[in-house]
Amino acid sequence: MVIVSRCGLGLRGTGCSSSTTWRTIDDWTTPSGIGNVAIIAHGMVVTPQNTVFTAAYHNRGTGPQKKWIVRRGTGGGSQWATVDEFTYSTSVAGAEAYNVWTDSLGRIIAQGAGFDASDVSRWVTRLSSDKGDSWSTLDDYAYVNGYEAFAAFNQTGPAVDRNGAWYIVGTGSDATARHWLVRKSTDQGASWSVVLDYQYAPGQPSSPRTIYVDSNQDLYAGGQAADASGVGHWVVLRSSDFGASWAVVDDFQLAPSQTAQVKGLIVLEGRILLVTGGAADAGGVNRWVTRRSSDRGATWETVDLISSTASNAQTEILEDAQRYLYIGGYIGLSPNRNPTLRRSNDRGVTWSTVDELTGDSYALSAMRAVARGPDNALYTVSQTVEAGGRNHTIVRKRDCW
Fold first, then answer.
1. Phi-psi region of 98 (alpha: psi -120 to 50; beta: other; left: phi over 0)
2. What is d(CA 66, CA 86) in angstroms, rounded to the nearest whole number?
3. What does residue 6 show for φ and ψ, rounded to 5 degrees?
4. How many CB atoms lie within 10 A of CB 247?
5. What is the mean pLDDT of residues 253-282?
6. What percent of the chain has pLDDT over 90?
7. What is the DSSP letter of 143?
8. What are the pLDDT digits (tens) for 234-251?
9. Strands 325-331 and 311-313: what pairing?
C-alpha cells in the first residue's frame, strides 16, 4: 500500500509547458454574515486524479463556533467547493480539521478534533469513499475519557510499512499532562492500537507532529516533549521493529532552557534524515531550523537557521520528481508575518526562499502545507489574516520549475 502524500518517487522531470510562476487558485474567506472570524488552514493532499483537498476550520460566531471544513478543488484546483462541514456536537467548540490524505483504495481521510458536550476534544477521523461527495466518522478516540485527545496538525498521511500497516501520531491527555501517541492500524483504519505512549519527563506534556517510514522500514516520529522543568525539547524517536520499541535519536534546543519543536521530517536514500521545525534563541525569539543527519541520526548538523527575524517552519518536508525538497512556514514579526516556501536543490545541505507572500493582505500568516500533484505541480496552502482582520485560506500552485 502507498499513501500518495508521503511518497517521494525520485524521478527526474520531463519538462513543462505550463506556468512556471506561482498563482492563487483558491482564496476562501470568511463566510458572509458571520464577521471576521478565524479561518485556520492546516492540511492538503493532491490525489492521483489531480483533485486537491484542503483541511481547515473556522469560527462561525454562533452555535458550535468551530466548524471542521474540507474543501475540494477538481481539475488541479480549477473548481472549488466545500465538501465536508462537520461540528461533532452542539457544544460551543464544535470541530477542527487538521489534516487530509488519500489511501491506495482512493478514499479521502481527514483527521482532527471533535469537541463533546463538555467541550473536551476527541481524536476524530472522517472518511469519504466517493471522492469527497459524502463523509462518515471512521474513528472517534479518547485516550482517557473526559480529557483531550486530537490528531497531529499538518500530517500528510500515515507512515505505511511493507505489510500495509498504518501509523499515525497525535496527542492524548490524562489528569496530569499530554502524552505523545503513535497509533497503528493493520486493517486500513477499521481498528487501532497504541504502540507508543511517550513522555520525556513523567507528568510533563509531550506532543508529536510527524511520522515517517523509510526504505529500511525504520519508523521516525518527531515533535515536542517537555523536560522536568516544563521546557519543550525538539525530539525525534526511531523504531526499527514496527513500533514495538523506540529510541531517541535527536534531542535538540537552540538555546538552553528555551523551547523547540519538530514540525516535519523525511528520510532520503534510507540514511539521510532531515528534520525541520522551530526553536527559540537565547532571547526567546522563535527561529526556523532544519537539521540534517547523514548517518540515520547518529550525528547531526544544523543546515538552515533563519536568524534575521522571527520565523518558524510549519509543514512536512516534500520531495518532488526532480528530487528538490520543500518546506513551508513563515518569516517575520506580526503584523508582517509572511507565508514562506524554502527549497533545497542539494538533498538538504543548503536552502533558499522560492515563494513569499508579503503585504497587508498577509499579516499574521503562515504556510501550513505543501503538496505535489501527479503531474509534479506544487501546491501550498496558507492561513492568512488581513491587516483589517479578515481571514483567508490561500491555495497557490506552480506547474513546474
1. alpha
2. 9
3. -110, 20
4. 10
5. 97
6. 75
7. S
8. 999 999 999 999 999 999
9. antiparallel
Q: Quick check: helix, strand or coil at residue 44?
A: strand
State whether the Cα torsion 245-157-143-223 is positive or negative. Answer: positive
Amino acid in position 81: A
Q: Does the N-terminal peptide bond of residue 208 adopt cis geometry, omega within 30 degrees of 0?
A: no
Would the pLDDT of 287 be above 90? Answer: yes
Burial class (CB in 10 A: 0-12, 13-18, 19+), 374: middle
Question: Which stretches of 18-141 are assigned E, i.e. beta strand?
Answer: 23-29, 39-46, 52-59, 66-73, 79-86, 95-102, 108-115, 121-128, 136-141
Under a CB-based contact definition with an 8 Å cutoff, are residues 183 and 195 in contact?
A: yes
What does the alpha-carbon distance between residue 49 and residue 90 come to, in Å, rounded to a whole number? 36
Helix (H, G, I), strand (E, B) or coil at 21: coil
Q: CB of 370 within 8 A of CB of 320?
A: no
Query: Would you list the DSSP string of 368-390?
Result: EEEEE-TTS-EEEEEEEE-TTS-
- Burial track 298-331 (b if 16+ CB lie within 10 A, e otherwise): eebeebbbbeeebbbbbbbbbbbbebbbbbbbbb
pLDDT reading at 311 higher than 90: yes
Own/partner pairs for 296-301, CB < 8 Å, 24+ apart?
296/218, 296/238, 296/249, 296/267, 296/270, 296/271, 297/220, 297/236, 297/238, 297/249, 297/250, 297/273, 298/249, 300/250, 300/252
Contact 182, 167 (CB under 8 A): yes
Q: Report the C-alpha gap between 307 and 333 in whole angstroms.
A: 12
Q: Nearest-CA neighbor of 379 among 109, 50, 85, 153?
A: 50
CA torsion sign, 44 to 123 to 149 to 104? negative
Residues 6 or more apart from 187 whose CB is under 8 A from it? none
Please report, as a single letter, which amino acid is at residue 292.
R
Under 8 Å between Cβ of 378 and 10? no
C-alpha cell at 123: 481524536
**pTM of the prediction?**
0.92
Q: How far is residue 215's CA from residue 162's CA, in Å, rounded to a whole number?
A: 9
Q: How far is residue 233's CA from residue 262's CA, in Å, rounded to a whole number?
A: 9
